[in-house]
Automatic annotation (TrEMBL):
Protein source organism: Pseudoalteromonas citrea
Name assigned to this protein: ADP-heptose--LPS heptosyltransferase I
InterPro entries attached to this UniProt entry: Glyco_trans_9, LPS_LOS_Heptosyltrfase
Gene3D superfamilies: Glycogen Phosphorylase B
Annotated GO CC locations: cytosol
């Protein structure tokens, strides 16, 4: 599509990692269509991270409100009509939200990535892609409205106070190694004793180790378990930072270790190298985009074991199942990757 746009609506409700991927596409759209007013419909938690994003109007969709959330969305857009809606989420909740957004053109995913009735809520689609990372899929939405997307870049919203708070939390620590240990599901977490072993190695190599995470019981318990194995000072920030403050902590860090979790992608947006640990999802699709070479994974071997096929022979994004898959990632492999990254990044 080659056209002049005065109003563009983005629909991507969640999750933290995905909205981080989407920011790069949104900012590319803004650069190509500076005259257009950009409105983004997103989730309540995600808005806490992205609030203040330059020249973007945010409309919050709070899924906890159930049917009332859709009524509020209709009310928010009463009397408005967008030139185009970029419908970047195939979940049924998002599809129903798309019904509440008036737009001349509604662009969604191609038929191969469409599910949960997604195709019924759009009238145009992006071009199909083979083996694309999630971020590259979002870039194709930008291309669909005439934007030339090259290497992604981000200008994330945070204040001087956010940076000051992060600096205060990290005071006296100049070479920070962040362990963002918890994913959204326990089965995607690595073993606490192995996190501790890598932390010990980092400590012995001159790094100050910092644990980060949210306030959930899962995250606090995992942090406590990791700390029970260490014999040196570790700064535990789990549950002690707001999202923007966490972003600034990640920005000031030298290196991050994380499983498949939002902070890994937050770190990418502020150019902090990430060692990603993956077992259930294909890191080529969902890994920390700028640092895919730093991933330690057992996904592909388990995919072949469970499906008798490789990733190229299966629907893109096929996941593998198992409660103990992360235990197949050895401490030795992660420490070897740590040493490799330290040399490559000159840390």
């Amino acid at each position: 599509m080659s056209a002049q746009y005065n109003s563009i609506c983005i629909l991507r409700l969640s999750a933290i990692g995905d909205v981080c991927h989407a920011v790069a596409a949104v900012q590319a759209i803004q650069a190509a269509h500076p005259q257009a007013k950009v409105t983004w419909v997103l989730g309540k938690v995600e808005a806490m991270l992205l609030s203040g994003l330059a020249n973007v109007e945010f409309v919050i969709f709070d899924k906890k409100q159930g049917s009332a959330a859709y009524k509020q969305l209709k009310s928010a857009f009463k009397g408005r009509r967008f030139d185009v809606l970029l419908h970047m989420q195939v979940a049924l909740r998002a599809n129903l939200a798309a019904r509440c957004i008036p737009a001349k053109v509604k662009i969604g995913f191609d038929k191969h990535r469409s599910k949960e009735l997604h195709s019924l809520f759009v009238n145009r689609t992006i071009d199909a892609q083979q083996s694309a990372h999630v971020l590259e899929g979002f870039q194709n939405f930008a291309r669909a409205i005439g934007v030339s997307c090259n290497a992604p870049s981000w200008v994330m919203p945070f204040s001087e106070q956010d940076e000051h708070t992060a600096s205060g939390l990290l005071a006296g620590r100049n070479k920070v190694f962040v362990i963002a240990a918890a994913a959204s599901k326990a089965e995607r977490n690595w073993l606490p004793e192995r996190y501790a072993e890598v932390a010990q190695h980092a400590h012995e190599n001159g790094f100050d180790v910092v644990l980060t995470g949210g306030p959930t019981e899962l995250e606090r318990t995992l942090a406590d378990d990791i700390l029970s194995y260490v014999t040196f000072p570790v700064l535990n920030l789990v549950g002690k930072t707001k999202l923007k403050e966490l972003l600034c902590v990640l920005k000031q860090a030298k290196l991050v270790l994380a499983p498949d979790t939002g902070p890994a992608h937050m770190a990418v947006t502020v150019a902090t190298p990430v060692i990603g640990l993956y077992a259930h999802s294909n890191p080529t699709r969902t890994g920390p985009y700028l640092y895919l070479d730093y991933v330690v994974e057992v996904y592909h071997q388990n995919l072949v074991k469970q499906k008798n096929k490789t990733a190229d022979q299966l629907p893109w994004g096929t996941r593998v199942k198992g409660a103990d898959l992360m235990s197949q990632i050895s401490t030795e492999h992660v420490i070897a990757m740590f040493d490799n990254v330290v040399i490559k990044e000159r840390l």
